[in-house]
Amino acid sequence: MQVKTARRWYYWHKWTSLVCTLFLLMLSLTGLPLIFHEEIDHLTMDMKEVVLDKNAPDILLDSLAVRAQQEHPAEHIRYVFWDADHPGMVTFDLADKPDAPPDHSHYVSLNEKTGEIMGKPRTDTLIYKILELHTDMFLGIGGKLFLGLMGILFMIALISGVMLYGPIMRKFDFGMVRKYKSKRLKWLDTHNLLGIVILAWTAVVGFTGIINAMSDVVLGLWQQGQLKEMVAPYEGQKPITRPYSSLDEALATAKKAAPNMDASIITFPGTMFSSQHHYAVFMRGKTALTARLLMPALIDAKTGTLTDIRKMPWYVNTLFISEPLHFGDYGGMTLKIIWALFDIATIIVLITGLYLWWVRRKSEKTRWNNLVPKKI
């Protein structure tokens, strides 16, 4: 590699790393407990285990909705969730308004067979606050987009680091750490070695992090694109008012339209994932991959009839796939432990990078002071 080219890659690596490192360190530290968020929630939340009786019939969803409503009579249901990791449990999201922010929600989880309240998930827990810090630094969409920009700088830092590391290692054995040289060289070799070992992982997590940071933009594109097309026949009509048609009928209609899929979420009229006139029943597949991909079925909330059902656009599916991949949610505890080890290695790379910059800066400052003549 020519000297000018190497110097150019060095400056790209130096400055992109310096700008994003502190934010990446925050993301790595907060990401570590988030890898195990399900296990932490299980320990910290007062949730009962569902004992499944496969022979017992399910209670009507409308009856379960009434039971959930009794817990918060001044509010209204706006979402219904089924979690594939907790079969036999259905969770209701209630708030004072359909478009209320997420932190205004109250949740009630019920046993589908007995109607028993299994728990009331909360959003004021430490792990939820860590998630907010990790996703948007408590700054909403502005914070998400800023972290997305830091992710782009991180990807540039990775590419420039690889471009520098390749020519250097032609002169040395791979994995070399010069332990008996200076302290700076030892940490430089450690920084380079760990960086190249975890390169594939950091590239995947960095890229999926950028995609996740664009989630609000993706939602807006879907709302103004596919969703707008699906509800176009209702344009100009007055929003419908409660009471709505049966949840059970809406669910049965969606299952009939997508017979090889399971229900994941039902969104009520007026929420951001539906229209002013529809239930949106989001169906998911039954395999490890297709369970992450959703298909919206719009059900007229007055008549209970299906008005449209479509596959999500590619950019929404990309987001659905990237979210669990970012936190290692695909392969159970084994993959989570691997993700955690890579995360710790990333923290070491970031800290050693800051150390190397500080030592070099201090050395250059000392050299400059020695060159400047002292006043007599």
From TrEMBL:
**Database matches in InterPro entries:** PepSY-ass_TM
Query: Sorted alphabetically, which keywords does the UniProt record give?
Result: Membrane, Transmembrane, Transmembrane helix
Which species is this UniProt entry from? Arachidicoccus rhizosphaerae
Segments passing through the bilayer: 12-36, 145-166, 187-211, 337-358
Give the classification, highest ranks.
Answer: Bacteria, Pseudomonadati, Bacteroidota, Chitinophagia, Chitinophagales
> What Pfam families is this protein classified in?
PepSY_TM
Its protein name is Uncharacterized iron-regulated membrane protein
Give the domain of life. Bacteria
